[in-house]
Amino acid sequence: MKEPALVDARNVARRALALYEDDAATSAVLEAYGQRLEGPLRIALAGMVKAGKSTLLNALLGESIAATDAGECTRVVTWYRRSDTPTITLHPHEGPPRSLRFRRDGGRVVFDLGSATAADVAWIDVGWPSESLRSLVLIDTPGIASLSQEVSARATGFLTQKSSASAADAVIYLMRHLRSSDRQFLESFRDVAAGGSLTVNAVAVLSRADEIGSARIDSLLSAAKVARRYAEDGDLHALVLDVIPVAGLLAETARTLREDEFLALRQIARLERSVRERMLVSADRFALPSSESTLSQSTRRALLARFGLFGVRLAAALIRGGIATSTELAEGLLQQSGLTALQVLMRDHFRARADTLKVYGVLPGLDQVLRERPRPGSEALLAEIERIFATTHSLRELAALSRTRAGGYSLPAEQLADAERIVGGAGASAAARLSLDDTADGALMQHRVDELLTRWRGIAESPLTERGAVGLCHTVIRSLEQIASERPRHVVPLMSHDIVLPG
Ligand SMILES: Nc1nc2c(ncn2[C@@H]2O[C@H](COP(=O)(O)OP(=O)(O)OP(=O)(O)O)[C@@H](O)[C@H]2O)c(=O)[nH]1
Ligand SMILES: [Mg+2]
Predict the structure, then answer these.
(1) What pLDDT is recorded for position 234?
(2) Do the Cβ atoms of 20 and 33 come closer than 8 Å?
(3) Local confidence band at 195 (pLDDT 50, 70, 90 cut-offs)
(4) 186 near 173, Cβ under 8 Å?
């Protein structure tokens, strides 16, 4: 969907740049905001140390580039953006950027910081010819609450910098359990997010989901239940759009599955049941030397590292259930991993309103620069920013959505749920807003819009509706009118490259 506010925001950025032409420091900041409006949506992965951020990033990329060991690279903010040729550039705090050499090692991309330590590095920029980066930039951040205060501060500093030109437009927050430190972080992030609201641009991932049920074959079902409970938790509901269980390791491996791995797993699947069960009773047992299969100990260790015990058990079960090729296995594992569900959420909540999210994040930053450095002409630009916020419906929707989720309106629960969905709380597509299937036809949609319009006009005019909620009613009505005027609307496809499987 075209976002008229994007054009307006770019205009403000351009005019501001002209206004501060003689001030190099301010110009640099304004230019960075301008670039943020021009470039793809920026999504950061955040969370406590070892939550599985880099693994999930690799899964989303479909390639193993981000380091998941304990090296220095895990301690710096790293950007992944699309470029025609692979390049890795280190940006130090002091001195010019420099290229880093990398090599491939068993399907992984490996690079190191050379003589630099993480403390010397401002950020690393990875340019990669990955289709998954066509419409987004992914940002890997170091673990929060890591042993080193300094590393933790780097992540928190990046994610919570107030109105920074280099901040992310949206966040995927990974947590293994809901700890008080997770809540604190999400709250601190909300406090500095644009307009004091994080909700509209954050989703939580219940990560390493395969470990939740001790790698039992129904682990992901247990994880789904836990995720549901978290999603319904009042506090979290006000902080993130949803909570999705994802087994990132399984997803990464599925997207980079090799033929030799499939063949090894098939051998395990073909073992006699009692032998197989004994072998898979624990990770330790699986890694022990054994004469019960021809798979070497090093092969079994490699499988464990790539799949985890749960992944090996699941793969064996899928093959026994009839899966006959590595491509089918990759597909089956990917589906189970939860990655596809996360990608759908990213499509419906982030990509479908990418331009709006960029504007929502950047305008408060421009506003701040103009206020901090007033000069003749800055007042007019501030007024323009205010006008954009006041008149752009999509921005009002985001504000209404986060306020609704934070319990900011007193309306009956059923009406609130209805309102939340209509302003885009279940996804930005018309079908999601109307609570209809993606395949619903025009006539059905029209009928539903008419029905909802009548209902919401009634609520807006009812003397029983509290004054404070009338504004929300008008936003809801406007959203419905917009759906009516824009039909047939396009559903943003889940890009084929999002679910590319290894050949
Ligand atoms: N079983 C299992 N292990 C996982 C999963 N995701 C990550 N791991 C393992 O957990 C460890 C940490 O994973 P990373 O992806 O490096 O986590 P991180 O959050 O990036 O860690 P830091 O950057 O050091 O904070 C690695 O050994 C991964 O193999 C998962 O979904 N399942
Ligand atoms: Mg990491």
Answers:
(1) 73
(2) no
(3) very low
(4) yes
Quick one: which atom of ligand 1 is closest to the CA of 49? 25
**42-251 under CATH 2.30.130.40, yes or no:** no
The average pLDDT across 188-196 equals 54
How far is CA 291 from its chain centroid? Answer: 45
CA–CA dist 70, 52 (Å, integer): 12
Q: Report the separation in Å between the CA atom of 56 and the middle of ligand 1, taken as the mean of its atom positions.
A: 8
- Quote the pLDDT of residue 405: 82
Closest by CA to 332, choosing from 279, 255, 277, 266, is: 255
Q: Is the distance from the beta carbon of residue 311 to the nearest atom of ligand 1 less than 6 Å?
A: no
pLDDT in tens, 152-171: 666 666 665 545 666 788 88
CB 420 within 8 A of CB 405: yes
10 C-alpha to ligand 2 centroid (Å):
34
Listed ranges 15-24, 43-52, 161-170, 424-433; the one with the highest mean pLDDT: 15-24
Task: Tell me, using a 6 A CB cutoff, whether residue 338 lines ligand 1.
Answer: no
Residue 114 has pLDDT above 90, yes or no: no
Tell me the CA–centroid distance for residue 249 and ligand 1, in Å: 7
345-382: pLDDT as tens digits: 999 889 988 999 999 889 988 999 999 999 999 999 99
Dist. CA 427–CA 422, nearest whole Å: 9
C-alpha–C-alpha distance, residues 126 and 303, integer Å: 28
pLDDT score of 1: 53
Domain ranges for the chain:
42-251, 256-337, 409-486
CB distance 306 to ligand 1 below 6 Å: no
For residue 60, give the H/E element and its range.
helix 53-61
209 CB contacts (<8 Å, ≥6 apart)?
219, 220, 223, 227, 245, 246, 247, 338
Cα separation, 58 vs 72, in Å, equals 18
Count of CA atoms in the C-beta half-sphere (13 A) of 132: 20
